[in-house]
């Protein structure tokens, strides 16, 4: 707070002081006090007033600087009223009391919102858990009674399972830290599992996939990684265009990274939209023509990769190809 | 024949698992009454247990720990829960493996076979033969009348399946699925191309026509 601002605060008081000083000047004049003495009196008056104001200003500024530093140092700024020192004036005490009431009301609201979100997340987990029972039942029935019809049923069921997985991972996104288990993961085994889980869907869509050139292992969470690969492969099928989907997966080591690249020769992504594909809810011109584009798949992949320390990149040429690259850092060299 | 015990309270899943595993050549028993589970396990003395975690009145984890007191039988957890904590708990409490719902069937069977150490070698023959034509799996060749033909991995797998079902009409989707279960992920057209290539190779080697096409139904040896 500048001195001028401080003074403008006192604008109700200062004119009053000067007015009374003037009044007394006139009075003293009438009492016969000489000009010289009056000037001296005025000088003293100004000095006393000035120093008093200055001292008041300095103290107030110090107080504000202290309060500002407390605020700056706090992460949870709503605890301000609890942390700061006791107020040194009645007025400040009243203000502090109001602040505490306001902050408490806000933290109550926030806790309430947090509680509602946690309850909802638990509900989603429970729902997903329940959904898995009939899905498993259908898959087992289809496996035990293979026919053209049951193959089609399996395809649809796999699509249900994909959506259910997506719901689960979206719900868990805020809590990844609590749910991962880093272990040595064979990229090929991961891909093979994803292909096996979507077998009928991929076969019915005439997909042709080669994973021969994937041979590296990385350190990551198998579950999350499978989900990411699942999204990428499903996308390749969804956006394959007129031709049947042809997908190549290749891995190679490059310095202190292992890179897994998954390429399809589908409709590709327009250059103008490439930088936005990871945005939440972004469906783009491709998504608008495809069915069931949620805009959530790649968003989830991007968020999960960030949490797992994987760098995800997409290269694409419209009407030609799309390549998704996953760069895994290697924590230490494994000598084989 | 190995004995598998299924401990799962969802009726449909239990029944279908029983059918699946019987078809795969196991002797299967199930627990339908969950009151004296531990006693039944002791009586049954299975070679492998498929154990669900959410059971009525008891917890799969504690059951596993209790079984470990008296037996080293391989235990495969089959469950809907799939957090990292669940997996870790299952394995540290004595489980040998963990597979989450919905089960992927080929993977489930592979894991069971793995746990029972049913080696890949003993069930499969090295050579298959049909009407004087020899399919050599180790060498990857097809031979007849002194002539031999080299086969690619895909061609070999296709012929293996056809030879294993010799005399039967094999529907194309079955072939494609079999290939997918064996890490060859090709589509229907590529299958046709492969069959064509096999026929060409046989023709060039002077071996008689082997694979018959039954229109609308499949292939037959």
Fold and architecture overview:
The complex is a heterodimer of chains A (336) and B (221). Chain A is of the alpha+beta class. Helix content of chain A is 61%, strand content 15%. Chain A has helices at residues 3-9, 14-31, 35-73, 80-83, 90-144, 148-172, 187-197, 199-204, 222-238, 271-274, 284-289, 297-308; strands at 182-186, 208-213, 217-221, 246-254, 257-264, 311-317, 321-329. In chain A, a hairpin with a 3-residue loop joins strand 6 (311-317) and strand 7. Chain A is elongated, with a radius of gyration of 35 Å. Chain B has 221 residues and is of the alpha/beta class. Chain B is 42% helix and 23% strand. Chain B has 9 helices and 14 strands. The chains are: A alpha+beta (336), B alpha/beta (221).
Helix content of chain B: 40-55%
Gyration radius over CA of chain A: 35 Å
Strand order of the largest sheet of chain B: 2-1-3-6-7
Report, as a whole number of angstroms, the end-to-end distance of chain A. Answer: 67 Å
Instruction: Figure out the total of helices of chain A.
Output: 12
Shape, principal axes of CA atoms of chain B: elongated
Largest contact between protein chains? A-B, 36 and 37 residues
- The amount of beta strand of chain B, in percent, is 15-25%
What kind of assembly state do the chains in view correspond to? Answer: heterodimer
